[in-house]
Amino acid sequence: MPVHIPDDTDFATFKEQCESQDGWTARYNKGGVTVWCRDEETTTVQKLKMKIVCKDVRAETLYDVLHDTSYRKKWDTNMIDTFDIGKLTVNADVGYYSWRCPSPLKNRDFVTMRSWLPLGNDYLIINHSVKHPQYPPKKDYVRAVSLLTGYLIQSNGTNACTLYYLTQVDPRGSLPKWVVNRVSQFVAPKAMRKIYKACLKYPEWKRKHNPNLKPWMFPEQNTLPCISVADLTLQRADSLENIDESTLSEEKPSHNSEDEET
């Protein structure tokens, strides 16, 4: 299937989903973080939405943190590897991301097309999975599918903002119920707080690491090779391996592995 680069309508639809309460059920609301769930056609492809209010963080800073791949390696302990593959337009690229799943599940990875749009007091970043001929599924990972994942950042004045994170991912496997529960009750809230803490530390870090380099804001700084959208196809879940991990039981994390698994 051909790949479609998101347009203004796609961004508007994503923003509407983030802000709407219709059809969403709150599963967690504690410590400034709210998590909602929305069951779609199958239980394995659940849609999650999260919200956190970030005090003492400018919307522009949060936007930079979510874009800055170099900094992500400092705070995203869930990540195994990430890198940009190439650019499509001034506000769209293709990248790779692999993440550590709770043991004993297999780790997952993605190849996604990401698009972003600063819009007044709002900043949006959305992605979905694509197939790139040079980055096929790997032997040691389960290639998962992002149907729609993204962030909406809304400015709440000069030094505060609200972050929404919405994700609908097909993990390509029958997952045990404890995984779904753990994601909504533990992993997702902790991830939101981790982003918030990363934002508080980012300005000082960025001053020491290429402070003027922000290719997501200044396209002339982007040195990625150009990719033609014709070289990409939409990643369909039914073309990938589907594994059954539904009978796996949860392993108790060791005393120092909490961050490693979230």
Number of strands: 13
Please estimate the helix content. 10-25%
Low-confidence stretches: 253-262
What is the second-level CATH architecture?
Answer: 2-Layer Sandwich
CATH superfamily: START domain
CATH topology: Alpha-D-Glucose-1,6-Bisphosphate, Chain A, domain 4
Keywords: Acetylation, Cell projection, Cilium, Cytoplasm, Flagellum, Lipid transport, Lipid-binding, Membrane, Phosphoprotein, Transport
InterPro entries: STARD10_START, START-like_dom_sf, START_lipid-bd_dom, START_lipid_transfer
Biased composition (Basic and acidic residues): 249-262
Main location: other
Overview in brief:
The protein has 262 residues and is α+β, with helices and mostly antiparallel strands. It is built from four helices and 13 strands.
What does this structure look like?
- With 262 residues, the protein is an alpha+beta fold.
- The chain has a single domain (8-236), classed as 2-Layer Sandwich (Alpha-D-Glucose-1,6-Bisphosphate, Chain A, domain 4), CATH 3.30.530.
- Helices cover 23% and strands 35% of the residues.
- It is built from 4 helices and 13 strands.
- The protein has helices at residues 8-19, 59-67, 69-75, 177-207; strands spanning 25-30, 33-38, 47-55, 79-89, 92-99, 108-119, 122-131, 142-143, 145-155, 160-170, 173-174, 233-234, 243-244.
- Strands 1, 2, 3, 4, 5, 6, 7, 8, 9, 10 and 12 form an 11-stranded mixed sheet that branches. The chain has a two-stranded parallel sheet with strand order 11-13.
- α2 crosses α4 (177-207).
- The radius of gyration is 18 Å and the shape is globular.
- Mean pLDDT is 88; it is low at 253-262.
- Keywords: Acetylation, Cell projection, Cilium, Cytoplasm, Flagellum, Lipid transport, Lipid-binding, Membrane, Phosphoprotein, Transport.
